[in-house]
Amino acid sequence: MGNVTVIDHPLVQRDLAILRDRNTPNQLFRTVLSRVAGMMAFVVTHDFAVTTYQLETPLERTKGLRLKNDIVIVPVLRAGLGMVEGFMNVLPEARVGHVGLYRDEETLEPVDYYSKFPKTLAKSLVLLIDPMLATGGSGKAALTFLKTKGAKNIRFVCLVASPAGIKIVEKNHPDVPIYCASVDRGLNRRGYILPGLGDAGDRVFGTE
After folding, report:
1. What distance in Å separates the CA atoms of residue 118 and residue 56, rounded to the nearest whole number?
2. Whose CA is closest to 130, among 122, 119, 141, 120?
3. Catalytic residue of the set 51, 107, 175, 207
4. CA 87/CA 112 separation, integer angstroms
């Protein structure tokens, strides 16, 4: 798992515990998911290239920094939507694309149903976000789809990941770094992460 960065900051791990708790209500789940996404964004963007420019403070001229690359945030619908606000709070200059996938409950394979991306995708640094990296099928499919649309520089950000899911993504997309808050124990027979946090989409939108 050499391409995986586990973000073990105490505040991230505190919020992960809140998200794991089955007694956390939907409204609090949404709030905490957005907050932890913003904290993770600081680590994910730690090596972003910058350029300098001249600006004027109320007192004098000085140099400022701005991000060099165009940034595109791509949530995997629908659970990934819960992380968008947190990332946008840190990266307000970013554009947002969308890729819609759902998991066939029989085969556990992803099925795509929607996509929309900025025209700058091929020249942008793309952050694919999804709370869960479970079987790896959806992550693999989303990354493949982004590459067919021209994306070349992609980072995958999730909250919790399984070893099996990481293995699938690394095998099929070895060029894509993975960032997560936890590598969990494994999967159950339905392909859910253990201990995990349940169905993130249901918990974000209250459709349990």
Report:
1. 32
2. 141
3. 107
4. 24
Q: Examine the residue annotation and report whether 35 is marked as an active-site residue of this protein.
A: no
Identify whether 107 is a catalytic site residue.
yes
Candidates 103, 112, 144, 155; catalytic one? 103
Digit-coded pLDDT (tens) for 153-208: 999 999 999 999 999 999 999 999 999 999 999 999 988 999 999 888 888 888 86
Q: What is the pTM of this model?
A: 0.90
Domain ranges, residue 92: 4-205
The arrangement of strands across the sheet holding 132-133 comes to 132-133, 160-161, 182-183
H helices present in 134-186, as ranges: 137-148, 163-172
Active site (annotated) includes residue 199 = yes
Contact 144, 128 (CB under 8 A): no
Q: Are 145 and 155 in contact (CB under 8 A)?
A: no
Q: Is 47 among the catalytic positions? A: no
Domain count, the chain: 1
Active-site pick, 21, 70, 112, 199: 199
CATH number at residue 139: 3.40.50.2020
